[in-house]
User: Fold these one by one.
Assistant:
Number 1:
Amino acid sequence: LFGRRGGYQSARSSIQRHARQTYLDGGKEKKCCVCGYSNHVDVAHIRSVSSFSTDTLIREINDIDNLLPLCPNHHWEYDAGIFKF
Ligand SMILES: [Zn+2]
């Protein structure tokens, strides 16, 4: 997954796009699971993308059970380790 098609950053953005699509296709609620904000929702990974080995399939990383709807603020706080689920 990594190493092809322009490296790590590009892989990360493909994963993010795919995560969003997977989440929306899963018919889940589009609102932040912390504060309920729904105007803009990111899809965060419960188990971080970087913790998977580089040969992991995108559908394993983006398993619906590994995805979490968060507003940009809570996504940032989550990635910064301010809170955990
Ligand atoms: Zn929020």
Number 2:
Amino acid sequence: MPIHQSPVSRRQFLRCSAGIVGGLVISTRVQGAGPSDSTSFALLSDTHIPSSPDTVAHDVNMTSNLRQVVREVLAWQQQPAGVIVTGDCAYLKGLPEDYANFASTIQPVTASGLPLHLMTGNHDHRGAMVEALTVQSARNPLVQSRFVSILETPQANLFLLDSLTQTNVVTGELGDMQRNWLTQALQSRQDKPAVVVVHHNLQLTPPAEGKRITGLADSLAFLELLKSHRHVKAYIFGHTHNWSLKQMDGLHLINLPPVAYVFGEGRPNGWVQATFHPQGLTLTLKTIDAQHPLNGKSHEIHWS
Ligand SMILES: [Fe+2]
């Protein structure tokens, strides 16, 4: 499972389902005021927090960016059910000092009572993440050596997967065990739309000769799995540092922007407000640069 912090109350961790080998299944509810038929999350990705708050990369101070996002999340009137960080929490090598800075920068979120769900990316280190952050972990993981879990919300089930293979190596992979687990988990939860969340992107064509795979090494098998379950409506991921919304045969591909730096001039960095409703999802981009032309732009995602 990813790392989950739920400082308000352990009651939100409703059950560890014995039916799925002791893994963690988390039910969420909207806290405070807000539309009763919706659930909102703050979606963050690729924070790349370094050991020192002063470190700058690609002309961006990553710690400052995360501080800004934390302030904005806490000011969001919708009062989200949680904050999800889809990997690359640490700068490059998953150092304990990176996570110490991450923990202190994200601390206002947990102090405010918002559940925080941290996922792994290719620049993370599972052991160092667990060591540095207060953790509520399952004694028996759903998938050996991987952080996977399910967030049950009123409108959709979110399946958080783990695509980290080796720290600071760009390639991701889910692997047979995790894909088999996901198949079973999806089959046992067909009553609501399913949204699958992973750090890496799909890579459906082989890399150029001599180049590494930069996305999921098992993309084809994974996509086949997703398509074979019609209640899988969306795939949310980070990794590319390139905000985009696409569709593939009715499956929504939601590529989150980085909180940290972008790789293309003019591309937005920031975070995304996501509000689930019975027929889909509303996404609103919040950019670090308040003057960015895409700042505040909302998109309605309709389940097919
Ligand atoms: Fe990244």
